[in-house]
Amino acid sequence: MEFSGKRVVVMGGSRGIGRSIALGFAKEGASVAICARGAGPLEAARAELAAFGNPVFAGPCDLSKADQIAAFIPAAAAALGGIDVLVNNASGFGQTDDEAGWAASFDVDMMAIVRASQAALPWLEKAAEPGKPGFASIINVSSISAMRASTRSAPYGAIKAAVIHYTASQAKMHAGKGIRVNGLAPGSIEFPGGSWEDRRTSNPALYNSVLSQIPFGRLGEPEEMADVVLFLASRRARWVTGHTITADGGQLIGP
Q1: Which of 50, 64, 89, 127 could join 107 in a cystine, given CB atoms 3.0 to 4.6 angstroms apart?
Q2: 0.90 exceeded by the pTM?
Q3: pLDDT score for 246
Q4: Catalytic residues
């Protein structure tokens, strides 16, 4: 129960990778706050988290809206009694190379990280010990799409690359305060209701093409991403900052 008594905020924690990250922290004893736009999935995730017996806070938040982030972070900190770990997980999944596609990725994948991090910083500073890196940390979720060119989702990949750069910059900015900043770059992850589950039937050619690139012969699972995030937030990673870990089952090195 390494995270017993710790306060964790997961931005976009009602489904998929975010939900698994929130559940992973709750299983390890943390108090957890989550947000999402959809009331139904948000309440379902809140009930799952509450079953572990730790304090839980769930609030609606459209992460493309600066004012909603500015309201959610203080509410989460008040409910949990502070913030030790901030996980920026949500994505706008901008796909099309047009104004709408770029806006979707920029507003959520990039600016939500900037805004949530800045809003949470006062509480992270209180949780940190200058010169002694430990639990106080930010973890930003990027993607392996950041690491190769794409004709299918140019805005998504480009902004996720910016997230990796910003993660390293944040780490450098906040190291003196005792706050670590790292990232996770997932490969293709499949879960109920997710885009890859849909593509299995709606676009089997794409699904099978991606599947053929993964040496282990399957897509990843959200719980496997959560395990990496928990490591990055733990004392086992206390000397790790400014890095983005790829967790893709070898997808980038596949055929």
Answers
A1: 64
A2: yes
A3: 98
A4: 156
